[in-house]
Structures are given as C-alpha cells and as structure tokens.
Amino acid sequence: MPHSIAFIGLGNMGLPMALNLVAAGHTVTAFDLSPDATAGAAARGLAIASSAVAAARGAQIVITMLPAGRHVVSVWTDLVPASGEGTLFIDCSTIDVDSARAAHAIAQAQGLVSLDAPVSGGTVGASEATLTFMCGGTTEGFAAAEPILAAMGRRIVHCGAGGAGQAAKICNNMILGISMIGVCEAFVLAERLGLSHQALFDVASTASGQCWSLTSYCPVPGPVPAAPSNRDYRPGFAAGLMLKDLTLAQDAARSSGAQTPLGKHAQALYAAMDAEGQGGVDFSGIIERLRAGRAG
Ligand code: NAD
Fold this sequence. Notes:
Helix content is 50%, strand content 14%. It is an alpha/beta fold. It has two domains: 4-162, NAD(P)-binding Rossmann-like Domain (Rossmann fold); 167-291, N-(1-d-carboxylethyl)-l-norvaline Dehydrogenase, domain 2. Helix 1 packs parallel to helix 6, helix 4 (69-79) runs parallel beside helix 5 (97-109) and helix 11 (239-256) runs antiparallel to helix 12 (261-278). The longest helix is centred in the middle third of the chain and has 29 residues, at 164-192. Residues 8-14, 31-34, 37, 52, 65-67, 71, 75, 93-94, 119, 122-123, 237, 241, 244 line the site of nicotinamide-adenine-dinucleotide.
C-alpha cells in the first residue's frame, strides 16, 4: 500500500533510498540542510520541502538518514511534536546505541512508534535496493516498517528492542574491521614467505581462514575481480566510515564494560590511516600500510 513518507538526509545513501521509495509507488517529500543535496535530489525528481518540519507535516512515516547521533536526536526532537498521531519514525543512520535509545524515548513520550534500522550494503546496496536492515524496536513497529523497508532492501531482520539494530550493526562491523586486518596480515606474511596471493587464496578461501574479507573483498588484486583492490582501492567502503563504526563499537564497549582488545587495536590502525589523509581510501587499502611497516 502506498504511504506518504518524509525523508530527511539526502546524502550518498539517503538520496538513492528515497528514490527507491518513489519507484515503489510511495509519495515522498524530502529535506536536507545542504542546498547542493536538495538541488541534486530535485534534479532526480524528488519533491523537496522548505524544512524538515514541513516535510514531516502530514506524513505517515518519517525516515532519517543522517551522519551521527546528535543529528538524529536533534531532528527527531523537532519533528516528533510536529507529527500527527500514528506517525511511524524510522532512523536508518549508523549512530551510537545511547542516541538511538534517546531517539526512541522522544517518540515514545509522544505515543509514537519508532524503529532504529541501520543498514549494510553501502551505496551500491542503496541504489540497487539490496540493503540489509538491522532493526530495533517493538514487534508492532517492526511489522509496520517492514513493507516500507522492503522497497529499499532485500533482507530485514528484527534484532530486538530499541537500540538492538545499532548494536547488531556495530558488532558486525567490528568483526569486519578486525577480520580485514587479519586477512591483510596473512597476505603480507605470505609475500615475505614467497607464497603467491592466489595460492593463499585458494587454500584459505576453502579452509578455516575463510571469511567475507577474504572471499568477497580480497585485499590483493586478482582472486576476487570485483574487490576494490583491483581498482587501486577506490571505495567500496571508505576507511573513514570503518573508523566511524569501530569508534562507535569502542564507545559501546566502554559504556557496557565489554573487553574488545582487537576491536580497540583495529580502531587505532584505521585512525592512523585516516589521520594521514587516507580516510577516503577503501578500508581494504590498509594492507599497503601493513606492507610498508606503518601499522602503528
Ligand atoms: P552523507 O554525509 O553523504 O549524508 C548525510 C546527509 O545528511 C548530508 O547530505 C547532510 O547535509 C544531511 N544532514 C546533516 N544534518 C542534517 C539535518 N539536521 N537535517 C537535514 N539533513 C541533514 O552520509 P551517507 O554516506 O549518506 O551516510 C548516512 C548514514 O548512513 C551515516 O550514519 C553512515 O554512517 C551510514 N552508512 C553509510 C554507508 C555508506 O557506504 N555511505 C553505509 C552504511 C551506513
């Protein structure tokens, strides 16, 4: 059934997601603080409102896709009181668990149902409507949101109560950051030992070293032709975004008392890469730092 949807945040992810909602037959009114973003979105045929509050007025569903927790809490603080009874709030940004829970509390105080629904799949998944959504919220919220999210993604998982989607996202990406560094270290060691990339790949990809960082995103060119290593480490998934997610994981580890020594080390290695101006390089490009002995 078509819905009227307000979409706030038209960046690299938000714009293609909003366009997929339109393609699925929904009525979308959008807003972004950046004039460049709204101009680009208008040129693609998206209806643009004069403010976030104007976009949300009369909408049945409000979706936010913003950089960080403080943006989400601030936008929800403005929009929730301006929204009608029964409006469903969905945040798809990657943010800290505490801010996600604060956003849920803002909606709940007004009697509105809400969902945290961060995504994986990157800009390609956003364009091709193949994202994975990891959702936190009530069963009622999940049931209401699922058909809407289905227009933007392929896999939609209910992970638990409010904040559980963000928790799943940062735990998954902590595995990814650590496993990528592990795979890179193995290739660097293999090079020193005179073992070819292909030989290591052929063994490890079907043995106990098998993981996504190796078989889908191999950090050396050759074995996996679609991986960013074959195009000079153009992202893909930029190191700066991996640093953001590993930092969120470290914040959550600190506040929950979890021991994550490898997550902490991975965060430090990506922070060093970012500090040297390589935040825009694909995160698998960390192999070049390891090879050069600049791992920190
Ligand atoms: P982006 O920086 O391209 O877009 C964010 C947009 O939000 C910008 O256009 C900005 O102007 C707008 N914005 C900021 N504050 C605003 C406000 N108060 N009101 C309205 N608009 C506002 O970021 P992105 O790559 O689209 O990522 C969005 C979110 O998705 C982030 O939380 C990111 O971590 C997450 N994410 C990104 C990727 C990816 O590959 N890019 C993958 C998974 C998750």
